[in-house]
Specification:
single chain, three-stranded antiparallel beta sheet, 21 helices, mainly alpha
Length: 555
């Protein structure tokens, strides 16, 4: 048993102890605790929890690797995921918080006064969150597989057991405070390696400033090797794919159910806005560091690994080959590993970086703990979204409105266990790399919930038949395009990760057209929509705005 294994295991087990302790201390004892953490989370801590919920295995493990392999084209992920938070924070989050429901399907069902719309929205939530969770479980498999030097599939099964227990126990209250701890661990784990790499390579401990010089040097190396330059735009896809992916990730961010529900855990509209602002700051720390990670890792691989004797490669390469995520082959038989003979998965770049840069066993263990924190935190939020859609929006609101608190919590917990196991089985043979799977989830969210929520908040004429048509058409078009793209049929070179642009267009058009040709919502519903746009101390009724000064209601 080597030192690295002992140190990594000790660090991960210590962090697990912290998470489990927090979950037990904050165990959900009521449905409001389980779904919205009792609406008592302070904005700064909610911002941290949003950051942890958001910075999933795709961000922590896959983002830097995607940028490293795609270069300029990979920046669409960073810009889309970050820009989407601005849309969510200013366009939807405060208004949804003012409406005061537990879930996105509940908002849609009550806003449009339709059980059918509620059920369809709940099914969409389950599909989106299930797809997203496959990426998280696949990510946990990468981490656990490397730690124990076993196949990533076995690591995924271990992750299923951990996440099922962890999510079902504490509910949203336990998960929120656990995610605060997970954010602190994952951001420290992410920043330390990139700061040390910057110091090693450039002598400057500020990677956000120093990596530009390294990108310039890589351009020279690329020209020498006769490969596409790292910073040349649209070499790994068309300009239309870049734009479509950017839109899909932005609109998907604003429509993700497990992220939106985070804004229900605070007490006021103002707190919801501040939660979004804090979240953007905390998320920015990681997203601004990902391009630096990508540049430094690629530079080290190009200068210190490529060109080496095939029989004298660094010891870390064997460990990653054993996980199935790294392939080295002397294709031309010259005994030297060429750059083109090194096949590295997007999903291992961050995990392998401490070993690539020889940063020591403690940093390797810390990064492993951070990656597990990222996978666990998002998986927890996703499982709550799936659970609430089934147990609250379908079981309680539609089929059994007289269900007791105890039975509702039992159904919620068991639905988490079932969903985690099913997602884990699919993750054993994932249909793509982590960032690709997650991008599909965003495409589904942008085709379904983005049009439904934007029109639900900002267009009072949108009605139940319109939102039902929008959800079904948006979902159908998005899924159809994803499968078409996998079969090699594309429009303007847009692949499946950009499918949201077609789904959102279909969702908006179907909602608007059907709403206009059918009966308008009741006056009461239309006034409720207008009321959402005013601060909480203002109320819109009978065509007039009233102000609550804590004493009485005046015009």
């Amino acid at each position: 048993m080597d030192t690295q294994f002992i140190v990594s295991t000790a660090i991960i087990l210590a962090t697990f102890g912290i998470y489990i302790g927090i979950a037990i201390y904050n165990k959900a004892r009521a449905t409001s605790d389980f779904y919205v953490a009792g609406r008592g989370i302070p904005p700064v801590f909610n911002g941290m929890a949003i950051g942890a919920d958001w910075m999933s295995a795709a961000s922590f493990i896959g983002l830097a690797g995607t940028v490293m392999i795609l270069g300029y084209d990979g920046l669409a992920y960073i810009m889309g995921w970050t820009g989407g938070y601005l849309l969510l924070t200013f366009l939807l989050a405060p208004q949804l918080r003012k409406y005061g429901r537990y879930t996105v399907p509940e908002f849609i069902g009550d806003r449009y006064a339709s059980h059918t719309a509620r059920v369809i929205a709940a099914i969409c939530t389950i599909i989106i969150s299930f797809t997203y969770s496959i990426g998280q479980l696949s990510g946990s498999g990468v981490v656990i597989g490397r730690l124990f030097e076993i196949d990533a599939k076995v690591g995924t099964l271990i992750g299923v057991v951990l996440i099922a227990f962890y999510s079902a126990f504490g509910g949203m209250k336990g998960i929120t405070w656990t995610q605060v701890a997970q954010y602190i661990i994952l951001i420290i784990a992410y920043l330390i390696p990139v700061i040390f790499m910057s110091l090693q390579i450039t002598g400057n401990p500020m990677p956000w400033i120093s990596y530009g010089d390294i990108v310039g040097k890589m351009g020279e190396l690329d020209r020498e090797l006769g490969i596409s330059e790292y910073f040349a735009p649209f070499t790994n896809g068309t300009k239309w794919q870049f734009i479509a992916l950017l839109f899909t990730l932005m609109a998907g961010t604003a429509g993700l159910p497990h992220v939106i529900v985070r804004f229900y855990t605070v007490s006021t509209m103002k707190a919801a806005r501040w939660s979004g602002a804090w979240a953007l700051l905390f998320i920015g720390l990681l997203y601004l560091s990902a391009p630096a990670y990508a540049a430094f890792s690629r530079f080290i691989l190009m200068t210190k690994v490529a060109g080496s004797n095939i029989d004298a490669l660094p010891s870390w390469t064997k460990s990653w080959v054993d996980t199935g995520k790294l392939k080295v082959a002397d294709s031309n038989g010259d005994g030297i590993l060429q750059w083109k003979e090194l096949i590295i998965s997007n999903d291992i770049v961050v995990m392998a970086t401490p070993e690539i840069a020889n940063l020591g066993v403690f940093v390797i263990g810390l990064v492993a703990a951070g990656a597990m924190a990222a996978a666990l935190s998002t998986a927890g939020g996703l499982m709550i979204a799936i659970s609430s859609s089934f147990a609250h929006d379908i079981y309680y609101r539609v089929f059994k409105p007289n269900a007791t608190e105890k039975s509702r919590l039992a159904v919620a917990r068991w639905s988490i266990v079932v969903a985690t196991v099913l997602a884990g089985l699919v993750a054993l043979n994932p249909p793509g790399v982590i960032t690709q799977i997650v991008a599909w989830a965003f495409a589904l969210a942008s085709g379904t919930f983005f049009p439904a929520l934007v029109l639900g908040v900002w267009w009072k004429r949108s009605n139940a038949k319109g939102v039902i048509a929008g959800l079904l058409f948006g979902l159908g078009v998005t899924l159809t395009y994803i499968f078409m793209a996998r079969a090699g049929i594309t429009i303007l070179g847009i692949i499946g990760t950009g499918a949201g642009i077609f789904g959102a267009t279909a969702g908006f058009l179907a909602n608007i057209i059907v709403s206009l040709i059918t009966k308008a919502p009741s006056q009461k519903l239309q006034e409720e929509v207008i009321d959402l746009r005013y601060p909480e101390q203002m109320t819109f009724k009978n065509g007039e705005v009233w102000v609550d000064d804590d004493v009485n209601l005046t015009k």
